[in-house]
Structure formats: structure tokens, C-alpha cells
Input
Amino acid sequence: MKKILFLLLMLAGLQVFAQITINIKPSHTDFMKYDAVRIRVYLKNYSSMPIAFGQNEKIRGDLDFIVYHRNRKLVNRYPSKKTILSGIILKPGETRTITINLANYFPLQERGDYTVMAILKHPRFTKNYRSNETTFRVGDGTLYWTRTFGIPDYTGRTSYKDKIQPRTYNVKIFNNGIAQIYFLVIEDDDKVYAVKRLGFNLGSEYRPELLVDSTARFHAMLQITPKVFIYYRYNFDGKLEKRQVYMRTTTKPLLLVSPADGSVIVDGGRVAVKDTDYEEIKDLPFMDHIEEEEPKKEGFGTFEDLRDDK
Output
């Protein structure tokens, strides 16, 4: 017992007298397959000197990760010379939180449990510093809605003899450990083209409207509160073409298909005014997500940071 206590005290001492401490934590316990896997990295500079991470060889420190899949199978990092922490400066005594999309650096498409640990390296350090180990899970979600369509030809060069290339819009419900989320997955038999967050599953009274128009564009109308709705339009490659917030009036905003040309329009309600009808960041679960440049320098950000049109 005394030996164990002595070892614990020794480890605590090493943490206290370390030049820098590093801890990591996933933003959620569960992540949707092909979606971003965000890991928060907490850094504390205990040295009396600033620590800069740059391209110069004398200050080219970096953050690396060791990732294991089930049964401690090592996951190899994508071949890349990109340094994760380039441009970061840690002042003496500074605490910094950085969020890394681990899926930008490692193939995390296989379902199951993962274990990850971070390693901080720098030429000015007498040794490398290791973080705690943390775990997360990658899953596939539950299919809620599906529609297969043919890829349109906007150029007019396709012959009528050419085969129509099929693609599928799948909307899945996924529990990330905190809430159930609607995801749009655009894929065919060979490739996943895009994974987009649409919004929270708020129950049977708030089921989304989902339609595909005659030009193979995906339309979604989600009710966020009893009065507020969010509308999205994506093309077949996953590009967000329109995002609009609507308010219920005497009528409810609905998606309608034109019988003349198969286009989809929003009918009813009115366009909402931000900061008058709603406060986007504080009140509403808008989840339209897009990959961001890493690393972010301050925290995990807000829903505004995760918008498709930024």
C-alpha cells in the first residue's frame, strides 16, 4: 500500500513539475460514421518561457496522436507533412483549448470503439509529453428515410444510350451520447459523398419534411420550436445551396412539389429575422455542419461556427 501511495505521489509530482501538461477529451462519446471526430486538447504551459509552434526547424514542435481500434489495433495516420499546431504560441502560464478533427488525420470509418492518446513534441522540451487516454465510439445510425435518384446532366452531353448513374440520399438518426441527431448521408455503392447534420430529433411532433426535386436536389424542413422552422437545400454532391429560417404565422411553412416541373417550394409562414424572431446561437439547435480548418484556437465554438455557408 505504501509503495502504491509513493508511486501516486511521484506521478503527481511529475505532473506538477512538467514544463507543459496536456489532456484530451472527445466532444461526444459517440460519432457518426464519416462525420468529424472532434477531440478537445487542453494545454497548460508551466514553463517561464513562451512555447511557439511554427515551420522553422528550431520551433517545429507538433501534436501527434496514437489511435487504437478494437483489440488495441493501431490505426495508421494519413501520410501528411501538415503540422497540427503550426502558428500556435503558448505564453508562460497560459491555458489553451484546441479542438482537432481527428478524422482529418486518421481513417476512422470502421465502426466500434477507439482509444486515443496525444503526444506533444517540441525541440525545446527535454522530453515528449503524453496525455491521458480517452475513448469514443463510431456508429452508423438508424435509417429514417431514403431516396435513390439519378444524377442529372446539366451539360446536355449525355447520350440517351448512357446509363443513368444512381445515388442515394439517406437520412439517419444517430445518438451521439447527448442527443439524437438527424444526419443526411449522400452515397452510392462505392463512395460516401457527404455527411451533413440537419438537426436534433425532438420527438414525433417535430418530424422533418424531406423531399427530392426534379433536379435531384434534397430539401428538408425541420421544426425547431413550436414557431420556428429551418429549411435546407443541398445538391447531390452535398453542397448547401440554401439555408433559411421561417416563422409560423396563421399558416405553417411546408414543402410543396410543383406538379408542372417537379420543383420544390416553401409555402406558408414567413421568413424569420435573426436577433428579432430568434437568437441562433443560444436558443436553436441548428446543426448544419461543415468541415472546418483545424486547429481552432479557442474552444469548441458555437453552432454559428459549424455552419455550411461559412
